[in-house]
Design a protein that fits this description.
This protein has 380 residues and is α/β, with parallel strands linked by helices. It contains 14 helices and eight strands. 51% of the residues lie in helices and 11% in strands. The longest helix has 23 residues. It comes from Pseudodesulfovibrio cashew.
């Protein structure tokens, strides 16, 4: 057995931890670039305390143009570090900006799938990440996801050097997240924990994090959805998201996220909702394929473990786990693919793009084009 493991140099997890951001920033740089969401009221106090040399506000899904504009602004302001506060979009942009401040080549030199995927030649400037939702795990991942509008796909700029120097997780920042966003981001975390757990690249370290995260998410996601002010449930979901980010950064993902990239690039649908909608159907397709083609695969045993963790029933089968997730999606009102604008006419193109997505490499079994199309048909 052999593996490597990378994560943030420092992780701070506690209610109220966000109050320490100005002090932490001063330890890493003198001219911070603040990257945050589109609502200035949410970070007005922090902005006043930091007095950043540049501020970037990200509304909606970040694309390559927005990332380049943000990097140029930060370079022109001579920023020497980045503080990224917000959901996955803000933190992904912050990671990319931190990388592009010191790496000034064409962004397509570094992008996966649509670009050359070249490694960064220079170390990114220091980075602090602060999530305000519980789902993406972007605070501790090694990539920034960007929309390439010309090709209608989401791709990553990826390098382990892009992992944050400091990740500050303050569950109190998630108390105001509305139910629909709680549901979508929570399903993203659940999907990431499951996909990393059954991944071909899973390790004992990532599996331990996934098991703990799954226990917390299974218990607390429905509670946080029903009562957003329940701090213990918010803490559990913040931990589940954190563990999912660490796990996926080291073990990879699978078909759910393989599909999520092209669907998110072509349709105005929240990433987490796409993942939640697809998750039970990908589980069923993988379990069916494993039973027929690789019945001795450790991933099949992992799916059985997932079912027991989710349901609390020691007799639960892998298929029961997929049913449990399907029922949770109904409870959380996760929309179908058709509600997001996907029709059968899109299936061939989406399946083809999913096949070439980097996330697909971790899927526990190779799925045929017919099986991939079947997932879309089931999720419609």
């Amino acid at each position: 057995m052999q593996f490597q493991f990378s994560t943030a140099s420092r992780i701070i997890f506690r209610p109220g931890a966000a109050k320490a951001i100005p002090e932490l920033t001063a330890e890493l740089g003198q001219r911070p670039c603040l990257v945050t969401g589109g609502n200035p009221e949410r970070t007005s106090e922090l902005e006043e305390a930091l007095r950043p040399a540049a501020t970037v506000r990200i509304s909606g899904e970040p694309d390559t143009g927005a990332a380049l504009d943000a990097a140029r602004l930060a370079r022109d302001a001579e920023c020497d570090m980045v503080v990224a506060v917000g959901g996955g979009s803000a933190m992904d942009t912050g990671k990319v900006v931190a990388a592009l401040i010191s790496n000034t080549g064409d962004i397509f030199d570094y992008l996966e799938v649509v670009g050359k995927g070249l490694p960064l030649s220079e170390k990114p400037v220091p980075l602090i990440t602060v999530p305000t939702t519980a789902g993406t795990g972007s605070e501790v991942t090694a990539n920034g996801v960007l929309l390439v509008r010309e090709q209608g796909v989401k791709v990553s700029l990826r390098n382990t050097a892009m992992i944050a120097d400091v990740a500050v997780i303050d569950p109190e920042l998630t108390l105001s997240v509305p139910p629909a966003v709680t549901a979508a981001t929570g399903m993203d975390a659940l999907a990431q924990l499951m996909e990393a757990y059954v991944s071909t690249r899973s390790t004992p370290m990532t599996s331990g994090l996934c098991r703990e995260g799954l226990i917390r998410a299974a218990t607390s996601l429905p509670i946080a959805y029903e009562d957003g002010l329940d701090l213990p449930a918010r803490e559990d979901m913040a931990l589940a998201a954190l563990f999912s980010g660490i796990a996926l950064a080291n073990a990879g993902l699978g078909a759910v996220h393989g599909f999520a990239a092209p669907i998110g690039g072509a349709f105005a649908a929240p990433h987490g909702a796409v993942c939640g909608c697809l998750l039970p159907h990908v589980m069923r397709a993988n379990i069916r394929a494993l039973r027929h083609r690789e019945p001795d695969s450790p991933a099949l045993f992992a799916y059985n473990e997932i079912a027991v963790i989710l349901s609390g029933d020691v007799t639960a089968s892998a298929e029961d786990g997929a049913d449990w997730v399907g029922e949770l999606c109904h409870e959380l009102e996760i929309p179908s693919l058709s509600a997001m604008g996907v029709t059968p006419d899109h299936f061939d193109q989406l399946a083809a793009k999913a096949e070439s997505a980097s996330s697909m490499r971790g899927n526990p079994v190779a799925l045929s084009r017919e099986e991939l199309t079947g997932i879309l048909e089931a999720a419609i």
